[in-house]
């Protein structure tokens, strides 16, 4: 476990201290501020220190030529980059690295738990830089650059939701920082600006759409991008809107673009809006537009290290995104690290603040400053097991994990089957009827009750802990009674626990009235943010992995077909990545059903589905593989307890949200 930062080290310092330390920084050796190497060139292991003045930092805006013409007006689009950097290094002829967050949210919606937006003075000079990156890192010798994606805030162009315009918006700024693109002092003028103060090293960070752009830019292999920190980020936009053909939201990317674009873009980007609608049909089919917004196949181009962060109960940017991106990065040997929390769509600053800031500081010091602090040799994974209790693993998925075949067997009561190592008899079947009013929380609460809308497969009480680490699959051979059908498969830990209330309004956190400060402040940009605490619930079950699909998209090509009633189809549902320990004494359940209300959109029919159990199975990422399954399940027969209703965190999100 990485050590926690001392609170005293990161509190705001007085104005007198700012002046004194700034003067010291100017007249002492460069390494004292930079923290990368001593004057003799020996690697330093200590962290960079807050020796530069935040109040006196350079605050400026630059408009970078993207080379695109999204509006089709014959003019090349420029994107706005608001910059804050320490004044002293440039005065002394030294260059600094950049921390960059490219976002569509700097004017429409805000960033962070407090929804901060950019603010400017009467001359258009930036005043407030959202989040704490500037307050904390500028005094330590970093520049912070916040980029308005094309079509948002003060940038030209059109929003294309993860496509060329989005990614090029940020990539162009990295090119400018490395002298490969032109920047201008205004949106329309001809006065060029060079980034003579930048050393060319860039680290991108951001949550949700911002982190998605970091993934997309890393997938271009752009020179100068040394590390990315994607938080709750998308890796393929198709998988944000669909799960193997099943719609996750009612709207498409054109709706999302309309939520964030500037008034200028709204007036001038109707053609791009139409392209978004045409390229993303609501039938769930794979198109060229989705292919262009899928970063996973380009993982081989990634040169940057990746520090990936995700909530394992994120039902907005669902955990499939980090799982497939992580696996692709691993396949190509990318240097990487991962944090997995029990939260929903939440930034680590709001659930593990002190440890997060300290770890992020070490990460940027190492990859942008060259500090040999050991972060690259530290345990790869931090995982939240219970609220505020974390464990570490040297690598992830956990050592000894292997895909393990688990069988689905009918029980003595229809709808209540068993889960274990032994295959079912030939001809074994279970049947359910889709009920779009029911959700995974309803199914789990009634896991031991025979209901018409689901089939439950459960183990007996486990003899030993059973850990699942990574991504699994559920293969079903299903015969529908109608021409369309949606399928859901969820893994559930059946047993009492205290977990974060990920379905609450804070998705696992409660915002407090107290504040703590993380860097230096000015009158227009405070480093002090509301503290948070874990919002917890006491439950009888925990849903920890999910998979959904439209049966008509059974082909890996993701081109759907109408189903023939009475005909069997075989489809493999990809379960979302997770890391969960089912403790001894608890039971593991796999629930198979139709529409997961609130999480996928219902099909246009309500079919009855017959599942051929002899040709169905689950392949789960078990730590210890098949021997661990046998030890945990034991040889005894499974008996279902009395069919009482279980309690869990209720109220799965219903409305589409911004990523």
Automatic annotation (TrEMBL):
Protein name: Xaa-Pro dipeptidyl-peptidase
Key word Hydrolase present: yes
Disordered, as annotated region: 411-447
InterPro entries per record: AB_hydrolase_fold, CocE/Ser_esterase, Galactose-bd-like_sf, Pept_S15_Xpro, Xaa-Pro-like_dom, Xaa-Pro_dipept_C
EC number(s) reported in the record: 3.4.14.11
Biased composition (Polar residues): 428-447
Record's keyword annotation contains Protease: yes
Keyword line: Aminopeptidase, Hydrolase, Protease, Serine protease
Family: Belongs to the peptidase S15 family.
Listed SMART domains: PepX_C (SM00939)
SUPFAM superfamilies: alpha/beta-Hydrolases, Galactose-binding domain-like
